[in-house]
Amino acid sequence: MLLSSVVQGLEWNNIEGNLDRKVEAIAYDSRDVVNDSLFVAISGFAVDGHQFIANAVEQGATTIILEKETPVRGDVTVIKVENSRDALARISANFYGNPTEKLNLVGITGTNGKTSTTYFIKSIFEQAKRSTGLIGTTGTMIGDQHIKNKNTTPESLNLQQFFSKMADTQTDNCIMEVSSHALNLRRVAYSDFNIGIFTNLSPDHLELHKDMDEYFEAKAMLFDLTKECNIVNVDDEYGRRLIQRVKDYGTVLLTYGINQKADIYPTNIRYSFDGTTYTVNTPSGSAEITVNLPGDIYVYNSLAAIACAYASDISLAEIQQGILKVTGIKGRMETVYKEQDYKVIVDFSHTEAALEKALNTLRPFVKGKLVLVFGVYADESDQGKEKRVGMSHTASKYADFSVVTSDNPKKHDQMLIIDEIAAAMDSFNGQYKAIPDREEAINYAIEASDKDDTILIAGKGHETTQIIGDQELPFNEREIVLKALKRKKQIVRS
Ligand SMILES: CC(=O)N[C@H]1[C@@H](OP(=O)(O)OP(=O)(O)OC[C@H]2O[C@@H](n3ccc(=O)[nH]c3=O)[C@H](O)[C@@H]2O)O[C@H](CO)[C@@H](O)[C@@H]1O[C@H](C)C(=O)N[C@@H](C)C(=O)N[C@H](CCC(=O)O)C(=O)O
Ligand SMILES: Nc1ncnc2c1ncn2[C@@H]1O[C@H](COP(=O)(O)OP(=O)(O)OP(=O)(O)O)[C@@H](O)[C@H]1O
């Protein structure tokens, strides 16, 4: 593609060199540069991409986009922009032929519930014979292909490549999770969203966003990008704030909720450990819904999906079948083991609000003790401290006993984090034992449990690794649980 076409619509401060040259590839990492690449230098959180410009040129980059004045040698076109991440999004969309114009793109944002909502929507759309791709925390799905993502919402270049692949393979719909990081860091800029969905907002990622207002503003950006319809959880305080903001946007507004008056709402909800049934009421009729996941959180997430299907003219019969077909989502209230009243569940709850929901969802079905295994992922900032206290408060209030352990300590001091959680647990009179090694912690919870207990292992969900220092080590909670149970049974028998 010609550089002049790649930079269509890009606003620049300064340009040196020729626009009449070819661009074979775009790269934002110097290590990915090939001949005739366009390299975008990003001032990152960890390192400054500008320091790799010389490397990129050496490897064959013939165009550089940068945001800081940097000397560049060689026969290279240099374009200076205000914001490199925004420029990357603009040129990536151009390079891949603005693929979102050809897709029905649904974006889901909010602190919790994005992943399961995408799964519900994909299943309903497929029931209605609409070919559908998915992008989110558990990866990218295009046809039979399942690609691992580094981020919940990939960088704009990767995202536009996925969109283009979907458009090229007649995958007409794309359902994607949109994180607040992605919105802030311009990863989804220049993507045309048809539908936007807001699930809820509670404290998280306050290391990036100064406070809840700033976090809300980041999430709200998605709804400035949607062209047709916005779907909002009216039971959530921030959802109501969003409704005030978008109601005059000229896009269709659909609300869902259990407690407040909403367009899409449930009646006659019946909860059980294996799932929930309810009657969904929509402006075009009602239908019986069965959700094979427990608790009101999955009522909310399925309602969001139903609202999306309703806005997409999908019949209630297809909605019913689509939701019924979701029989489980990896690491989302996943029952790893169940024998009569003894249960072991793995769940991705890693925020205070999610942990509270997960424990409260299980509580009505617990005959013995509710035992929690949890850690708080590494973040040594003041906000990280607040999170450790908050998670400890939730654990002491809603679990009968907790095993405090590590959750991706990365380069941080895991003992410091665990000591802080332990101090907070003490201050809330929580019953707990601290075992830093996560495998040992799970083993202990299983060994010490009785036949009617329920064990919730929170935090990792679908993840199968533990990050310690620089190393991402294999860590499969399901296998660890089953091995521990096998040992326990042998001990009981002998
Ligand atoms: C804090 C954060 O968001 N970091 C993201 C950011 O990385 P960064 O700015 O730190 O990059 P950096 O390492 O400083 O490097 C700067 C630039 O130099 C380049 N470089 C670097 C080395 C080199 O040799 N050559 C080179 O060119 C890098 O490719 C980069 O372009 O830009 C990268 C490219 O897009 C992201 O992959 C990376 O996400 C990291 C992995 C991350 O952990 N992000 C999390 C916090 C995140 O985004 N999470 C959200 C929400 C999850 C949720 O749902 O809760 C998500 O969407 O995943
Ligand atoms: N609607 C909801 N309200 C509160 N908590 C929820 C809701 N839905 C799911 N959760 C809890 O949050 C955890 C994460 O859910 P899910 O993966 O769907 O959220 P997410 O928004 O995709 O999060 P992330 O972006 O971190 O992947 C679940 O394991 C569950 O405990």
From TrEMBL:
InterPro entries: Mur-like_cat_sf, Mur_ligase_C, Mur_ligase_C_dom_sf, Mur_ligase_cen, Mur_ligase_N, MurE/MurF_N, UDP-N-AcMur-Glu-dNH2Pim_ligase
Limits of the Mur ligase central domain: 108-309
Gene3D superfamilies attached to this UniProt entry: Mur ligase, C-terminal domain (3.90.190.20), Mur-like, catalytic domain (3.40.1190.10), MurE/MurF, N-terminal domain (3.40.1390.10)
Job of this protein: Catalyzes the addition of an amino acid to the nucleotide precursor UDP-N-acetylmuramoyl-L-alanyl-D-glutamate (UMAG) in the biosynthesis of bacterial cell-wall peptidoglycan.
Entries under SUPFAM superfamilies matching the protein: MurD-like peptide ligases, catalytic domain, MurD-like peptide ligases, peptide-binding domain, MurE/MurF N-terminal domain
UniProt name for this protein: UDP-N-acetylmuramyl-tripeptide synthetase
EC number: 6.3.2.-
Recorded superkingdom: Bacteria
Source taxonomy: Bacteria, Bacillati, Bacillota, Bacilli, Bacillales
Keywords: ATP-binding, Cell cycle, Cell division, Cell shape, Cell wall biogenesis/degradation, Cytoplasm, Ligase, Magnesium, Nucleotide-binding, Peptidoglycan synthesis
Binding site for ATP: 110-116
Name of the coding gene: murE
Names of required cofactors: Mg(2+)
HAMAP family: MurE
GO CC terms in record: cytoplasm
Modification after translation, per record: Carboxylation is probably crucial for Mg(2+) binding and, consequently, for the gamma-phosphate positioning of ATP.
